[in-house]
Design goal:
Helices cover 67% and strands 0% of the residues. By secondary structure, it is mostly helical. The longest helix has 26 residues.
């Protein structure tokens, strides 16, 4: 039951980020609801398709569909009264990333897949919706930025697998793993948590030797 409600909160959080990500573009209510729903349902849909699940989760339980739609409509009307939309966006995205990753990892484990597949699907589920959202909103995907994004999802997925091995069926394993991801994301947002410079790919400045020579006239 805890996983079910965490999944619902994740749906709502990502739907809200989908609406906020549209910025000040002149999008109508229907367009924003579609964007919010694609953002919140996209990652789980990709996961179920990859795993060849008989019925996609939101088709089996349409409550996910209604929560995504209702959250998008709510965000459409509420966001105009919010001054610091960027802060709300980052917080909602952090919670959505954490909830989706943890719920997906644990659900895949329950389906009988290996820990490796569960962690992989957890990370994909967590980041895929945000990638779809950012691309449709013409934004640079957060996962391609310098600060920690996919890494907290990976660590959280590994943590939930470890907790389930050490404390099987503990009711709060999912909450502990979710907290870890959220804390890491908030540190990345507020404290500039980056990889060390030697782990970053940096584009070299072009030197004179690297520049193409002008053709002689």
């Amino acid at each position: 039951m805890i996983l079910y409600w965490l999944g619902m909160f994740g749906i709502a959080a990502f739907a809200i980020t989908g609406v906020i990500s549209s910025g000040k573009r002149d999008m109508d209510l229907f367009s924003l609801v579609v964007l919010g729903m694609v953002t919140s349902l996209g990652g789980g849909t990709i996961r179920d398709v990859i795993l060849s699940v008989e019925t996609v989760y939101w088709v089996k339980d349409t409550s996910y569909l209604w929560v995504a739609a209702a959250s998008s409509v709510f965000a459409f009307f509420a966001v105009r009264f919010i001054e610091n939309r960027q802060t709300i966006f980052h917080y909602a995205d952090s919670f959505g990333l954490a909830l989706f990753t943890v719920v997906a990892t644990e659900n895949v484990l329950r389906l009988g897949f290996s820990a490796t597949i569960a962690v992989t699907m957890g990370v994909i589920t967590g980041i895929a919706g945000g990638i779809i959202r950012d691309l449709l909103s013409n934004r640079a995907p957060l996962v391609l930025g310098r600060e920690f994004y996919a890494t907290p999802a990976l660590l959280g997925a590994l943590f939930i697998v470890l907790l389930n091995d050490v404390f099987p069926s503990h009711p709060y394993n999912a909450i502990y793993a979710t907290t870890l991801i959220v804390v890491l994301r908030l540190f990345a947002i507020h404290k500039g948590l980056y990889y060390p410079s030697w782990l970053l790919y940096k584009k070299r400045a072009a030197t004179t030797e690297e520049l193409p020579h002008e053709p002689r006239k």
